[in-house]
Amino acid sequence: MPLVISHRGANREAPENTMPAFRKALEYNVDGFENDVHLTKDGVAVVCHDNTVDRTSNGTGTIEEMDFADLRSLSFDYGMPGFAGVQIPTLAEWFDLVAGMKLLNVEIKDAPNLAPVVKATIDLAKEKGCFDALVISSFADEALVQAKAYDPTCRTALLFSADRADVEAIFDDPAAYAHKLHLDGFHPFCGVANPDFIEACHAAGLFVNVWTTNTPTQLRLSGQFGVDAVITDDPALAMEILYAKQAA
Predict the structure, then answer these.
(1) Under a CB-based contact definition with an 8 Å cutoff, are residues 30 and 44 in contact?
(2) Model confidence over 171-226: pLDDT tens digits?
(3) DSSP assignment, residue 140?
(4) pLDDT at res. 114
């Protein structure tokens, strides 16, 4: 059965990509986490989906143009009741919480200068003893190229959906496509993954982790198709459907 990876933590029960959301997901005995990382103006790696704080906090601005101290003064409650004052986590704090889990997926967003955030992610994973569980994923080819250039042993996966311009090339020959970018796996949207693609990937030694599997049908099909992991916004449901497990 696939690993259950909590997408931005238990983001339906606590503000996404915050420590309360990650801690809540731990109660469901998930196998790992997915998050998103950016660098602040003063070089601190922080966990946040967007490159701005406008949607997720009570502030405004672009993370790479803000100092860490300014970010920490904001409330990243995403407007959810009961979470006023929750702070943006650092990537180091996140690694401290999740050390020992089976899979830690850090997504890196496309940006003009990707090398520093790639380096910070890999360096922190090693420092915190989490490198063996790390997978760097991205929709941006260059982020994955940079990760392999910095450390060829770092596992990488291409995020994609049906609207990617060259999606047919991925499905026609996933092994050749992975070789071109030195990938270790693919992270397709769950709605486009199919058994033939998954079988071809596995035959080539590539893993397939699908996103975002949020319904009973999506979860059951993903398990039947033989994916390696499901990335889900509903970790409680995923554990119940795939493993018949309830919260600890």
Answers:
(1) no
(2) 999 999 999 999 999 999 999 999 999 999 999 999 999 999 999 999 999 999 99
(3) -
(4) 96
pLDDT given at position 248: 44
Distance from C-alpha of 238 to C-alpha of 219, rounded to nearest angstrom:
7
Whole-model pTM: value is: 0.97
- Domains belonging to the chain, first-starting first, are 3-36+101-243 (3.20.20.190)
Sign of CA dihedral 123, 5, 35, 94: negative
Asked whether the beta carbons of 156 and 125 are under 8 A apart, the reply is: no
Active site residues: 7, 49
**Rounded alpha-carbon distances, angstroms, from residue 177 to 27, 73, 173, 203:** 38, 44, 6, 14
Average pLDDT, the chain: 97
Cβ contact 95:124 at 8 Å? yes
Give the pairing type, strands 134-138 and 155-160: parallel
Phi first, then psi, for residue 157 (nearest 5°) are -145, 140
Residue at 47: amino acid letter:
V
**3 state DSSP class of 15:** coil
